[in-house]
Amino acid sequence: MKSKFALRKKCLEKREIFFKNKGNECLKLKDIEIIVLEIKSKLKIASIGIYYPIKSEISPLKLIKICKNLSIRICLPIICKNTNELIFSKFDNEKNITKNEYGIIEPSKISQIIPDIIFVPMVGFDKTLNRLGYGKGYYDRTISKLRKLKKIFVIGLAYDNQMVQNIPAENHDEKMDIILTDKKIYR
């Protein structure tokens, strides 16, 4: 079993290569809309948490238009340094955002929301819906906490070439409910 460090490095290299060749906006709008509508038919959805992509992360920004059409609020994560968790805050428009010390775009004002669906960036993933992140555990801690508060649906976003045979999952790692790539939906 490969160490997470070595696996992370390999997955990031693969993601960078794909990003340079194909670009960031490769998710099919129809696939995203189908997933959101499918979940909306099963759960009451008032808000969706997305991330503002950095580096070569696959972009979930197409969700903004879909959510506006469905009257669903969009929120972005803010890193809470004292708990090493994320809190989600309402995202209105590009004017009300700021870049944090890590270069991550966050809402400039906190209007906390617990999203019904969270779209999560991934460094790598496997067919059993395990996610490999950057290694800080922000999403794992946050998802674990939120799943204890209410039913949430977690969707990982990645390029298909980020899939690996096996992610060495640990007890604190949170599985995705679905993984959506540029080629396929993994359930």
How would you concisely characterize the structure shown here?
This protein has 4 helices and 12 strands; from the N terminus they run ααβαββββββββαβββ. The protein has helices at residues 4-22, 29-42, 63-69, 138-149; strands at 47-49, 73-80, 85-90, 97-99, 105-107, 112-113, 117-121, 124-125, 131-132, 153-157, 178-180, 185-186.
Describe the structure.
With 187 residues, the protein is α/β, with parallel strands linked by helices. It has one domain (4-186): 3-Layer(aba) Sandwich (Rossmann fold). It is built from four helices and twelve strands, in the order ααβαββββββββαβββ. It has helices at 4-22, 29-42, 63-69, 138-149; strands at 47-49, 73-80, 85-90, 97-99, 105-107, 112-113, 117-121, 124-125, 131-132, 153-157, 178-180, 185-186. The strands form three sheets. The chain has an eight-stranded mixed beta sheet, with helices on both faces. A two-stranded antiparallel ribbon has the order 4-5.
